[in-house]
Design a protein that fits this description.
The chain is an alpha/beta fold. It is built from 10 helices and 10 strands. The chain has an 8-stranded mixed beta sheet with strand order 3-2-1-4-5-8-9-10, sandwiched between helices. A two-stranded antiparallel sheet has the order 6-7. It is globular and about 50 Å long. The N and C termini lie far apart (38 Å). It binds NADP nicotinamide-adenine-dinucleotide phosphate. NADP nicotinamide-adenine-dinucleotide phosphate binds next to helix 1 and helix 5.
Length: 227
């Protein structure tokens, strides 16, 4: 499949690398290709400059947002939650009738730590994206875990879950298949409903952040246990 990953942070890199390793033709989108490649500092989380990562993943093409989406069969939003609508607007010409996997969280760091959610309770970032791009088929997925787990769920010794939410059943089937390629067992992929269910997936983030602080590692996830 031709996949456009919008976002050059750790999530975009991890998904682009993981999908490319599994044989997909992956294009990454950024605001300004030259500027992104020229960065020489590690980011706030200690991730290496993009060009260093890209040197080991030269089969992944880096283009501007608006060039990434038109040729893609499927688009992944892995941009900062505060910037996702703008980033997708830049790539809007290639979103119609496409599955749009939204991995972003609407975290607002402008008031310091811990971040707050810029949208919650009665709305979600995924719903805002679906509303703004009504011809795309938005599926919320993978936002409830650390990037490395997204493409390597076997990092954890026991079974654990990934959630999907969206209004289009065929789009959710496509995402379910893609998740299985990434190593997720079908029984561990939980469909929580329509796109409105993304509210709960995004509102989990404050708990995820507290757990990471307490556990001292991002390598953990939710496991559903039922009667
Ligand atoms: P990030 O730092 O949250 O986002 C980086 C991306 O956002 C870059 O591609 C950047 O564009 C773009 N961006 C930033 N400001 C922009 C603006 N004003 N206009 C357009 N684009 C802008 O990266 P991340 O840590 O990889 O996270 C990506 C998303 O996944 C976030 O929404 C995050 O909450 C979510 N998430 C993260 C994790 C994790 O493990 N870190 C796990 C689950 C979900 P350039 O390429 O031009 O710099």
């Amino acid at each position: 499949m031709k996949i456009a990953v919008l976002g050059t942070g750790i999530v975009g890199r991890t998904l682009a690398g993981g999908l490319s390793d599994r044989g997909h033709a992956v294009t990454m989108g950024t605001r300004d290709v030259a500027e992104t490649l020229a960065r020489s500092e590690t980011d706030a989380m200690g991730n290496q400059p993009f060009a260093q990562w890209h040197a080991g993943h030269s089969n992944v093409q880096l283009v501007a947002f608006d060039e990434a989406t038109p040729t893609a069969d499927l688009v992944i939003n892995a941009t900062s939650g505060q910037a996702s609508l703008a980033a997708l607007e830049a790539g809007a010409s290639g979103l119609d009738d496409k599955v749009l996997v939204d991995v972003a969280n609407p975290l607002d760091f402008s008031h310091g730590m811990p971040p707050t959610l810029s949208v919650a309770n009665t709305d979600s970032l995924a719903e805002q994206i679906q509303q703004k791009f009504p011809r795309s088929k938005v599926v919320k997925a993978l936002n409830t875990m650390n990037a490395r787990l997204m493409v390597e769920p076997s990092r954890l010794p026991e079974s654990h879950n990934v959630f999907i939410a969206g209004d289009d059943d065929a789009a959710k089937k496509t995402v379910r298949d893609l998740l299985q390629e990434l190593g997720w067992k079908d029984e561990n992929i939980v469909d929580v409903g329509g796109i409105q269910a993304a509210r709960g997936l995004e509102m989990y983030l404050p708990l995820w952040l507290s757990l990471m602080g307490k556990l001292g590692t991002p390598d953990f996830n939710i496991r559903l246990v039922r009667a």
